[in-house]
Write a structure and sequence with these properties.
10 helices, 10 strands, Rossmann fold, six-stranded mixed sheet
């Protein structure tokens, strides 16, 4: 079956940066209904938030902006300081974008095996400095190295520390969950989201339950310690983020790497949606949950689209190639 959805929600917007009006393009993302992949569960509706529509290209733009704004408000982030944090990719892109707009230097610690072209564009176009950590230690190695860098000269840096910063989950509490409630007309019964920092699952869980205490919320994690779903954490083998509180959830759902990879192709073929493994894994988890319930409205999160998108594809790259380092005006 080959279907398509409108291009404006299938592909990411690529706002060309310069002024802070671009930051207004963070939030209010579309809610997409899965029309075909859940056909075996006719009494269950499955939706996903298309977070690639955020400026910055991912769900991580929400907490990155909130952490930076809160850092400024508290006085911990001032002109002359460098924003420093570890990242598996998407939060780093958001830090770099926002830092460029607001005039801050940005230093990102990333495992050396994270997408090289993505790192290159952040460093070269946005001006972020990239420090590579061991590819064998994953996101945990990046966390440890970032802390080491910060501790050597704490006065030089503002370290949001996305894994332990309450502003992370509050970004979703204040925005994402409210959008989900409104977009489903209060019909949402279940929420599922992958665990990276824990901000998405915790912020949405807390706010959705204020709207309706009966909403059930589940975290999604890779089934294996050694997995291939970028951006997600296998909690038993990882540094547990300080903001992640598993006891507040209704459970966890494990996702096999191969199932997530297969779902990438399934979503493209059956729904006309181009996403990466973490987004596909979210649908694998939503379908697993659908198989356990008789009826309901399940909402999940598409953290981003696909690895080619936004930072190394389309208008953004074309502009950089034809205009060099000159910063363009934000598109309307």
């Amino acid at each position: 079956m080959n279907v398509s959805i409108p291009e404006e929600v299938q592909t990411p917007t690529c706002p060309l940066i310069t002024d802070e009006d671009v930051l207004k393009k963070i939030g209010n993302t579309p809610l997409l209904k899965m029309q075909h992949v859940g056909r075996n569960y006719p009494n269950v509706e499955i939706y996903a938030k298309a977070e690639w529509r955020n400026a910055g290209g991912s769900v991580k733009s929400r907490p990155a902006l909130q952490m930076i704004l809160d850092g400024e408000a508290s006085g911990r982030l001032t002109k002359g300081k460098t924003i420093l944090d570890s990242t598996s990719g998407n939060t780093g892109i958001a830090y770099a974008l926002i830092g460029k707009l607001k005039g801050y230097k940005v230093k990102l610690v990333m495992a050396a095996n994270v997408c090289k072209e993505r790192k290159g564009l952040m460093a070269d176009f946005y001006g972020a400095e990239i420090v590579q950590s061991s590819p064998f230690e994953g996101s945990d190695g990046a966390i440890r190295l970032a802390r080491e860098i910060y501790n050597k000269d704490p006065d030089q840096y503002f370290m949001p520390d996305q894994y332990n910063n309450d502003s992370n989950w509050k970004a979703h509490y204040n925005t994402t969950a409210c959008e989900i409630w409104e977009q489903t007309n209060g019909r949402v019964t279940h929420f599922v989201a992958g665990i990276g920092t824990g901000g998405t699952i915790m912020g949405n869980t807390r706010r959705l339950r204020e709207f309706n205490k009966n909403i059930l919320c589940y975290a999604l994690e890779p089934a294996e310690e050694l997995h291939g779903i970028e951006g997600l954490k296998h909690m038993a083998s990882s540094i547990v983020p300080g903001i992640y509180k598993e006891e507040e959830l209704d459970g966890k759902i494990s996702i096999a790497t191969e199932d997530a990879y297969t779902m990438v192709q399934t979503l493209e073929k059956e729904e006309g949606i181009l996403v990466g493994q973490s987004s596909a894994g979210a649908i694998v988890g939503a379908l697993e949950l659908a198989s356990r319930i008789k009826e309901g409205v399940i909402v999940t999160i598409f953290p981003d689209s696909c690895d080619r998108c936004y930072v190394n594809f389309g208008k953004f790259k074309e502009y950089a190639e034809t205009h060099g380092n000159k910063i363009p005006k934000a598109d309307s």
